[in-house]
């Protein structure tokens, strides 16, 4: 027995939580929104979601195999990336577009930078941005929810083209909240996304800081800039990808600061950029670009928000 | 009731159920004891007995060398068989006095009660504590008389007794406080007297509420000894965190408790001081929790210093399955042992035998930057960065990220979902930083 005892330095026990548990929680949190997407967009959603996930997982496995690395699809992070990308695409987007997006997200943004944790941009958002730049037509062909996919515009699209009154007339706040409007596959239903967010908070996967400061900043700015019109503020909170962005994308571990102060700076930055792009920019929707920009700023933010260690204040 | 605590920390599984309701029982006296001549931080002692000599219980067998050193006494009566080197908990070899027990338990003449606390002067007290070979019994084993002799310029006004016992599995201090609260409180009084102060805090985690009644019952109404109920959280018993939770004082980075007027002692150390005063018996035994999934019937044993781990495990019914790891101390900060043929020392708070399943540490993966290690660090460090720099051999950067402030509690390694060897790599960085500081000073 003697020489069979393992010698290693402390600690000798570790928690049961692993990366795959965390990713599984994120997937669970996305289930309401995914089911909602299937309900609102039917086959259109299926054609986007299924290929996205399959392509993401396959891309990760094949790339890791070919480059002689350990295959880590078991950690479920590729599933999360594929699903998040799908939820950020228009329903009825052609399946090949989805596959190209997943390949780009996994191979270029994630694996070429060293795999999970080493990418400096959110893979799903980066892929979406590339798709939008390369295939603008397919990426902005919106449909109304329901069985008969009638093409339409998103509420934010109407806002940027026809102005505030038209936009607010086009969709009731209730429809926006429930998700009964045109938009990306999984971003339309505020309530379903918030249920997922509550689950993530409860499980300790995310903290309230990034979502609260992000959405809070957008709320305050749109209230100020919209002439203290409360329902206009709610319109901005509920429309487009703000909730999914604030809860699921901005909170991405790899690309957001780890320090609390840093997270506040980062989230407020996201909120300011989103508002500015929505109100003054050329695109109707600013969430993706705002988060990507702040992703890039994350290392800088972290450098300037290093916390004081215990006892350092007392000196 | 308000619970006191610190920022950060983790909630490892307690695993105390097996032993917390088991009264501390005297272990069978061993046939042979192996008493190390170095059981404390500081200089080793020199043997004052030789082979073939007859020694009695409580007789001094090793004499202290210098100020930061304490003597060692025999825990049995019998004949000195040999003086030989043996590996200890830390793996280093130490000279041990091997004594064959004659089971007569003859007391040495020097073991006589020291009188009433009120009649003893401060100097006398410190002298008694040093002569009795008392060192911190929480694990670090720092000679107690040194702590009780602070330099003039440090204005110590508070003593904090550590009864947190925040390590999973261990229940030795718990049983001690439950069974002999009078010794703990009397020990607190002795420490206060030795320091010439009148204020004490005893920090106890709230998973040991059952000790409160007995402990508070021992305190006189006019006495300034406060029991502080602490939130059950690891590492609640870490010195600086404990001081903060009890007194609100923050020990400066790189500083000592004395810098904020505090001296910390373990409750077991305090109880030992009280017993020594009462009976004259030096530090020759202690309560040790023998536990873990690999042990048949875990127990709290009152153990004579110098008993081999193997004998205590035998007394607990032996192994029920082959242990994957044997740890001296708790699972968070204890030392893994390569053998069970090592003797109990004054600092052995637990002997933990983990099964393969309990000791399993999954392979480490990429850091996902979840920030958990940073959230739990009681010192507010960013373990992920210190570790990353250390793994890249960039120890300068690791130092900039305050690697030296790490208290090695292991919370970060415990919590990491990617099972990164965080503390392990931070330790490497600390070693390198110390080495390079030395070089610069030369
Ligand atoms: S860095 Fe050090 S002090 Fe902080 S949690 Fe890790 S081991 Fe504990
Ligand atoms: S806990 Fe582990 S995975 Fe999370 S940030 Fe720290 S090192 Fe990275």
Automatic annotation (TrEMBL), chain A:
Its EC number is 7.-.-.-. InterPro entries: NqrB/RnfD, RnfD_bac. Its cofactor is FMN. Pfam families: NQR2_RnfD_RnfE. The keyword Iron does not apply. GO terms for cellular component: plasma membrane. It is found in: Cell membrane. It is a multi-pass membrane protein. The keyword Electron transport applies. The chain crosses the membrane at residues 39-59, 95-113, 177-199, 205-225, 232-251, 263-281. Keywords: Cell membrane, Electron transport, Flavoprotein, FMN, Membrane, Phosphoprotein, Translocase, Transmembrane, Transmembrane helix, Transport. GO terms for biological process: electron transport chain; transmembrane transport. It comes from the Bacteria. The modification FMN phosphoryl threonine is found at residue 154. PANTHER family: ELECTRON TRANSPORT COMPLEX PROTEIN RNFD, ION-TRANSLOCATING OXIDOREDUCTASE COMPLEX SUBUNIT D. The complex is composed of six subunits: RnfA, RnfB, RnfC, RnfD, RnfE and RnfG. Belongs to the NqrB/RnfD family. Part of a membrane-bound complex that couples electron transfer with translocation of ions across the membrane. NCBIfam families: rnfD. This is Ion-translocating oxidoreductase complex subunit D. It comes from Peptoclostridium acidaminophilum DSM 3953. The gene is rnfD.
UniProtKB/TrEMBL annotation, chain B:
Its cofactor is [4Fe-4S] cluster. GO terms for cellular component: plasma membrane. Residues 357-387, 397-426 form the 4Fe-4S ferredoxin-type domain. It is a peripheral membrane protein. Gene3D superfamilies: 3.30.70.20, NADH-ubiquinone oxidoreductase 51kDa subunit. The keyword Cell membrane applies. [4Fe-4S] cluster 2 binds at residues 377, 406, 409, 412. The keyword Cell membrane applies. HAMAP family: RsxC_RnfC. Belongs to the 4Fe4S bacterial-type ferredoxin family. RnfC subfamily. This is Ion-translocating oxidoreductase complex subunit C. It comes from Peptoclostridium acidaminophilum DSM 3953. The gene is rnfC.
